[in-house]
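Progress narrative, work stream C.
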Amino acid sequence: MEITLKKIEHSPLLSEETNAFTAEVHFNGQFIARAKNSGTGGCTDIFHEQGHIDTLQKLEVHYRTLPPFNHPLASSTIPMSLDFHIEMLIEADFRKRQTLKLLARLDRDSLSKVVILNKAQYDNLVVASNISISIYSIKYPVRFDKMTKYQRKKIFALAQSNLKPGEFIYNKNLK
């Protein structure tokens, strides 16, 4: 039983208590429903496609038989359901997109600066707001592709001398 979501559209500006989104729900590769949440704390609404109401009902029964979810921030367990499973898939997709966006920004910044990151926070990278980024601002003397090996080594050594315990140089272009 594989549920996947396609055509996911996040609406972070509308998200207050829960993730605001719309998505297509696919079961074993077949489009069976649309899911949406307005982001105001209510449940996720699932609207079946014609001819798939029985499939949705069977999936809901199946998910209700699964063990409850132990959320690390909640004091009690959360009962499993189809809409909760969809919400977890949405959260995972949102975190993945935020992570990719942050990594793209770091890659872009590392073309003109030395980027220094905290190792523990980088290893636990989940969303952009959960990472402490300190950028040691040393502008490259010339375009990176025109730099000599000596200039790269000198910049790397200067950045390394400014590292605090637990930090590392993110730049792939200096190593």
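Work stream C, second folded protein:
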Amino acid sequence: MTNIVVFVPFLSIYTSYLPLPYPFVRLYHSENPPSQPAMSELIDQQTPDLPNEILLHAFRFFPLKALIIGRTVSQDWRRLIPLADISPIRRALLDFYLTLVSSPIFPQTRPWVLANLQPFDRQAYIDDLMRQHPYVPEAFRVWILEWPARAVIGCVWPGLPNLYSREPCVDNVH
């Protein structure tokens, strides 16, 4: 059996096929890791249950995208993530994301968003705003740095064309 070393910010565990999403790192000591179906079977059979206290503590450090993905890991994680002591900004963004993706309008905007979405350097965008303004609200900063770009809100995102203005964009992102 192949062992995996999982690095957790507050805990190092030597185990086999522990199903932890980003930001945890999986290192396979084999050139041929098991296929996806074989991996999920191994996870179901051999994964020790981490105590809820450890999971709740770990969730505090997850960025928004990891919290979104974490809800799909298991029913336990789906139940525990809302109970975790995450920052109020991330909690509000997570709740908003869940509301947004369940909206009937969300699937209607997806084709246009996916066709027009352009990558941009998120940190450089925030740095540029900080040079222009003395204060950028923390909620806005977290939204720009952590929000999944493919789930943009109402086609408003720095990596999308600005349809509401005929003037050239000042931020040079569009």
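The first strand starts at residue 4 and ends at 8. No further action is required on this item.
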